[in-house]
Amino acid sequence: MKRIGLTLGGGGVRGLAHIPILETLDEFDCRPSVISGTSMGAVIGALYASGMSGKTIRGLVRRHTVSKSDTWPDVLKKKAELLKWVDVFALEFGRGGLLKTDKFLSYLLSEIGENTFEKLEIPLLVVATDFWGAQEVVFEKGELLPAIKASMAVPGVFGPVSIGDKVLVDGGVVNLVPYDHIMDRCDVSIVVNVAKARTPGKLETPTVLESILGTFEIMQMAALAERMKHREPDIYIRPEINEVRMFDFNKIEDVFAQTQPAIEELRMLIRKTIVEK
Asked: 165-217: per-residue pLDDT in tens?
């Protein structure tokens, strides 16, 4: 049986594209032996590594968001869950960032049911960035909550996280799609990059936040392209997700819809690379 390694990249709400990817792996009974992730990829990776199926994770997301197909009765049924997000994403004016992550991640871990890496069903590696040391930090042991919180600490949006003697920020600063950490621990690597699709020739002027995050994403992709020159994964999937910004949580259905062509590609590659060999 081939050992499958899975890497889930960061990208804010676009990271929910990982959910149909996981559903496709479940469809082929391709259970990873190791998972690595950055930012939202670390969040989804932790849910999956805890034993949740892709379908279960999709249901979790649907219970806490409003989709375009929801009727008013549907919204009212979700009222209690939706109100949690108001508290979870409270503004925090002060040093480091604008949004709190503690309540969001505490709630998330209550859904996972585990609080350490060692208790997960699938080994998980979470990537963060040492702000002052300017280097990558990889977590795979110990407490889960601080590691995930650090991995998704987007500069200027979420505050930095202190762990031990390090001040940590989003892992995407140094490694947006950390597939290099699974390559020697699997026979077949599946890597999913949900970075924003660029629009050459577009003349619209970005907002200040879009400008900052967009520049951040351009640098991340340049670093990834350089890394891939030296070693490529076996299966590389990049959904073309357009017109969805990092925190557009009202566009989750758009993310799922735009991921569908990549799902068809993944099915073909799984058959070719894993099933038929």
From this structure: 999 999 999 999 999 999 999 999 999 999 877 666 677 787 776 777 777 77
pTM of the model: 0.84
Q: Which residues pair with 23 in a beta bridge?
A: none
* Token pair of 264 as six digits: 């068809």
Closest CA to 37 of 135, 172, 141: 172
Q: What is the pLDDT of residues 77-98, one digit of tens each?
A: 444 444 444 444 444 444 444 4
Which DSSP category does 40 fall into?
H
Gyration radius of the chain over CA positions: 18
> Quick one: what percent of the chain has pLDDT higher than 70?
80
- The answer to whether the CB of 15 falls within 8 A of the CB of 45 is no
Q: Which of 5-14, 27-36, 147-156 has the lowest mean pLDDT?
A: 147-156
What are the backbone dihedrals phi and psi of residue 247, each rounded to the nearest 5 degrees, phi first? -115, 30
Which residues on adjacent β-strands are paired with residue 124? 35
Distance, in Å, from the CA atom of 267 to the CA atom of 273, rounded to the nearest integer, reads 10
Measuring CA to CA, how many Å separate 18 from each of 34, 41, 113, 122, 226? Answer: 16, 7, 20, 16, 23
- Greater pLDDT, 79 or 120: 120
DSSP for 62-124, please give it: HHTS--TT--HHHHHHTHHHHHHHHHHT-B--SSS-SB--HHHHHHHHHHH---BGGGSSS-E
Report which of 47, 40, 44, 45 is spatially closest to residue 171, judged by C-alpha positions.
40
Phi, psi at 8, each rounded to 5°: -115, 115
